Amino acid sequence: MRTLTICPPPPLLLLLLAGLRTPASGLRCYRCEGDGTCSVEECPKARQSCRTTSLWDEDVSSSVMVKKEEKSCAWAGKPNSSLTYLTGQTRITLLENHCTTDLCNKRQDRVGSTPARGGLECVTCGSSDLSCERNMHRTMRCSPQDQCVDLTSYSVPDESAPDERHIRGCGQLSDCSGPLGFHNNHTFTLLRCCNSSLCNGGPVTHHSLLPPNGVKCRSCWGNSTHGCSHREESTISCQGPMDHCLEATGMHELWGPQAMVKGCATAGWCKSPYLSVYGGLDQVEVRCCSDGLCQHQSTPRSGTTPHPHLALSSFLALLVPLALAPSL
Ligand SMILES: *[C@@H]1O[C@H](CO)[C@@H](O)[C@H](O)[C@H]1NC(C)=O
Ligand SMILES: *[C@@H]1O[C@H](CO)[C@@H](O)[C@H](O)[C@H]1NC(C)=O
Ligand SMILES: *[C@@H]1O[C@H](CO)[C@@H](O)[C@H](O)[C@H]1NC(C)=O
Ligand SMILES: *[C@@H]1O[C@H](CO)[C@@H](O)[C@H](O)[C@H]1NC(C)=O
Known about the structure:
Elements (H helix, E strand, L loop, with lengths): L10 H8 L5 E9 L5 E7 L4 E11 L5 E10 L6 E7 L2 E10 L21 E6 L11 E4 L5 E9 L10 E7 L7 E4 L3 E8 L17 E11 L11 E6 L4 E9 L3 E10 L1 H5 L2 H5 L3 E8 L23 H7 L9
Antiparallel strand pairs: 1-2, 3-4, 3-6, 5-6, 5-10, 7-8, 7-10, 9-10, 9-12, 11-12, 11-16, 13-14, 13-16, 15-16, 15-17
Subcellular location: Cell membrane
InterPro entries: CD59_antigen_CS (IPR018363), LY6_UPA_recep-like (IPR016054), Snake_toxin-like_sf (IPR045860)
Membrane topology: Lipid-anchor; GPI-anchor
């Protein structure tokens, strides 16, 4: 049986939503939990956007559709994202929409299940029925705006936890013109988008298949006393397209105000540091460098100002339970 993790929402998502530490100003949004209870919240300055994140789960033979939804204030400047794929007898659609006027996230976003016309044809599979791993690739017709998507994400070395290690299908994901990825000793994520027919096929990605690229970075997850102390930090060889060293610090409920994540990232991931948010960090500072081990660090780039490219954050957190996260 497929068990996509949305209900209850992943703890990290809740952490994100709970991280409201700046004073309120202006915008109000609906806030709805996965169980359907809703209230109105005043957004803090850094989160001047209203978010709706929905998961639609449709049985393709009976057309029975189950919908789960969460709403809240969110970082400003985030684009809308979507991802659709088939696994077993089910068609899964994930949507994240953002809008910026008072209480604008009220409306129910509808998903059409009729096959789209004029879109790409993409390979589709999901790990929950092992269709990706077994190369049992079906195809699906995408909406005209969609690209073909190939997402891999799991914890290292224990790969057993997340039930959707691989997802292939149709989607609209921002900043996804080149590969987007991050890995360290605890986690591996690689997202690729492409826009020609069936371009997301081929064998599934695994970190053991990606050759080292010569860059070495520090790897850890935690804080300076737990997880990221000098004793616990390791040096890893970066693989595949992940040839930049990333170091992010921020506020984390468990790890405190100086929580850190270190590892290897693609250039694109450095520009849109969603791991930081995805990892449950608030008020994030990100450094990325290409000269190995970040020895010649420049000044922190993003500070506490809202980042325009935190595109996938909670969206990815919904898709891919972050197995590296310490249990709460
Ligand atoms: C995102 O979708 C909402 C409708 O759900 C729309 O109002 C908004 O303009 C869209 N934003 C972008 C950046 O396309
Ligand atoms: C298709 O992909 C290429 C390469 O990733 C990109 O340059 C181009 O803008 C994309 N076209 C569309 C319509 O998305
Ligand atoms: C990190 O991973 C490498 C390669 O898998 C391993 O050799 C090393 O012992 C790991 N370090 C830690 C601290 O887990
Ligand atoms: C680091 O994390 C541990 C475990 O959660 C916590 O007990 C400790 O207070 C944190 N250290 C700092 C400096 O925040």
